[in-house]
Amino acid sequence: MREHIVAFDQGTTSSRTLLINRKGQVIDVAQRPIEQHYPRPGWVEHDPQEILATQLSTFTDVLVRNGLSPHDVDSIGITNQRETTVVWNRHTGEAVFNAIVWQCRRTAPIIDELCADPEVRERITATTGLVPDAYFSASKIKWILDNVPGAREQAEAGDLLFGTIDCWLVWCLTNGAVHATDVTNASRTMLFDIHTCTWDPWLLELFGVPVSMLPDVLPSSGLFGTTAHPSIAGNIPICGVAGDQQAALFGQCCFNPGEAKNTYGTGCFLLMNTGNKAVRSKNGLVTTITASAPSTKGVEYALEGSVFMAGALIQWLVEELGIIESAKEVEALATSVEDTAGVYVVPAFTGLGAPYWDADARGAIYGLTRGAGRAHIARACLDALAYQMNDLIDGMVDDSGIPMTKLSVDGGASRNGYLMQFQAGLSQLEILRPKNTETTAMGAAYLAGLATGFWPSIDEIRAMREVDARFVGTMGAAEREAYLKGWRDCIRRTRTA
Ligand code: ADP
Predict the structure, then answer these.
(1) Looking at ligand 1, which atom is closest to the CA of residue 382?
(2) Would you state the pLDDT for residue 309?
(3) pLDDT for position 163
(4) What is the helix, strand, coil percentage profile of the chain, to 5?
(5) Ligand 1 binding residues, C-beta < 6 A
(6) Are 114 and 120 in contact (CB under 8 A)?
(7) CA quadruple 215, 276, 9, 21: dihedral positive or negative?
């Protein structure tokens, strides 16, 4: 009876359902891809019905495969691609338009127009913790209301609802009984005041969003509702909800200020818990609400920074330079030489991000000599991942005044031992790589299981966690300084202004 937690991990490219036991082990995973719609260059959409259908069918798959019924499930935790926007009719349950995906750039002109005034930008950042951008939901809602015939009138009449993917799923799973999201997802809409935890009337006015469309905002761990959808019997409580990055921070057990996680995927996402303090960044990082255990008083915050070219840089070695056949070969090639022979790669393929913010900069390879070869370049690419992360870490520590005490890692490139060791040396941090790399789904599961008492406390959760590898820096101070000086010189030469 009720010996399992189910995590729904609704991502950008697939919907997954994970079955988790009391020991915090993943027993089974079912996954279905979701179709990407690109109606125009730079535009990205998903079908909300397909998102629901794949989530439901993967749920059924894991239950059937494991001979379980919904009555064996203690609770459901949901984690989701963030910022992606759905608008639907509260009476029919039909979405008025496809989901506009976080990556979609169609609303960049809306942001350019509404946020041109520096005072407006400042007020948005002060209220929401975000740097105004088309990523966040606000401009996507506006686009739907302005472009779908009749949508604005219906919204003003109170007939339409907005939600991020978690909210859409909760509404569908509860058969329309609950219209709610959690604080982490709300904090990515660019309509939410992260200090007072309320929808901000000035922002609603700016983006023309009627307040009647907006969901209730709940803590990430606690009862959202119980399932009532015809294909999920059993009245399963939905008790955990968090956006993917915040779920991963929680899943990595970064419960205390100064604890951070980095996901080394195609891009990198670094989040550091800053506790009850909403830190305003001077380095262009965003301030976001993070998921907390039910025992926590008040909301907790994190600083978040990202790097676009991480695993993607290794993919570039495979696909464009052709010097390796697959990403996993990069470690052997990079460690076939003693050092980079002075080669540095600055992967500013789409400009330099935090803390430099130079959109016009472009990538470069420096320090080539006659003896430099493919192994040196491969090694310099791995080093570049670590340098970029180190810059973000320095920015976070500088902004918050909180020393980073621990870095937990996940994502494809975290399997690279050379990279992890170099990162530990450069950043003078202990790096922990957990055995269970499903950190995002585990975060959602922990949030649900803590709310129901399936797991009694975060101490219990910490104790279940098994470490796969621990990396401690052995780099000397002079060596480290020399590496960093080289990197900074290359950044200086790459910048356009
Ligand atoms: P995402 O979820 O963002 O698609 P993953 O976490 O699956 O990414 O990681 C895939 C990325 O990790 C790819 O870009 C790949 O180049 C990189 N990668 C995979 N294995 C390694 C490795 N051993 N060393 C360095 N990079 C790797």
Answers:
(1) 25
(2) 87
(3) 98
(4) 35, 25, 40
(5) 265-266, 311-312, 314-315, 327-328, 330-331, 411-413, 415-416
(6) yes
(7) negative
Encode pLDDT of 299-308 as tens digits: 999 999 998 8
CA distance 352 to 451: 41
Cis-peptide into 355, omega within 30 deg: yes
Judging by beta carbons within 10 Å of its beta carbon (0-12, 13-18, 19+), is residue 38 exposed, middle or buried?
Answer: exposed
Whole-model pTM: value is 0.93
141 exposure class (CB count in 10 Å sphere: 0-12, 13-18, 19+):
buried
Using a 10 angstrom Cβ sphere, with 0-12 exposed, 13-18 middle and 19 or more buried, the burial of residue 128 is buried
For ligand 1, atom 13, name the residue with the nearest CA: 311
Model pLDDT for residues 178-235, shown as the tens digit of each residue: 999 999 999 999 999 999 999 999 999 999 999 999 999 999 999 999 999 988 878 9
**C-beta of residue 314 within 8 angstroms of C-beta of residue 327:** yes
Q: Which one-letter DSSP state was computed for residue 180?
A: E
239, 222 contact by CB (below 8 A): yes
Do 392 and 359 contact (CB within 8 A), yes or no? no
H helical segments located in 71-136? 108-114, 118-128
With a cut of 50, which residues of the chain have pLDDT below it? none
Tokens of 205: 């006015």
Nearest-CA residue for ligand 1 atom 18 is: 413
